[in-house]
Amino acid sequence: VNFLQFFSYSVTNGGKTTLAEKLKNMLPNCDIISQDDFFKPESEVETDERGFKLYDVLDALYMDEMVTSIRNWMKSPASSRAVTEESQNTYDSLNNVYILIVEGFLLYNYEPLNELWNRRYFLTLPYEECKRRRSTRVYQPADTPGYFDGHVWPMYLKYKNELEENASMQVDYLDGTKSQEELLSYVYSDIIQELNKLRE
């Protein structure tokens, strides 16, 4: 069985989930695994001296379970197969290729995931736009006052810097302020190129 795996990573509210869902609807045999599904319960997430719950760190997630889920999909991608009629008609010749999109906010800083990718995308946002988008979302538990500046943004910068210092990491940085259509078109074309390479 042939399969391709694409990783979409972004700053909070960068648009990765929307992008992944749209791609899933356009691509043959495509599934999504979301990092948000692996958060530990609130009682297991550490709190710092300021009272901030430390959600934007790897320790707040069951990362080993996430890796297991990805590996299980790789063993049997057809069992979770989701084919839309539209993608079926367009890609009959690619029926034996399965695609997994993994989306999250902390993917490339976790070593066991790094061997599992075909392509990596990183959606970035400037501080002001990121803060504006974050303020329009409702979280459970809700963001406490100062949480974005005190925890979320510093952690994003920390992990992004780690990533940029890792010369061996091939990452395609995307501007999250661009329209969803533009981002979708770019990533979709890229994935189709990968599929065509596999077909050749």
From TrEMBL:
The lineage of its organism: Eukaryota, Metazoa, Chordata, Craniata, Vertebrata. Keywords: ATP-binding, Kinase, Magnesium, Metal-binding, Nucleotide-binding, Pyridine nucleotide biosynthesis, Transferase. It comes from the Eukaryota. One of its GO terms (molecular function) is ATP binding. GO terms for cellular component: cytosol. Belongs to the uridine kinase family. NRK subfamily. GO terms for biological process: NAD+ metabolic process; pyridine nucleotide biosynthetic process. It holds the Pfam family AAA_18. The keyword Transferase applies. CDD domains: NRK1. It catalyses: beta-D-ribosylnicotinate + ATP = nicotinate beta-D-ribonucleotide + ADP + H(+); beta-nicotinamide D-riboside + ATP = beta-nicotinamide D-ribonucleotide + ADP + H(+). Gene3D superfamilies: P-loop containing nucleotide triphosphate hydrolases. The gene is Nmrk1. This is NRK1 kinase. Pathway: Cofactor biosynthesis; NAD(+) biosynthesis.
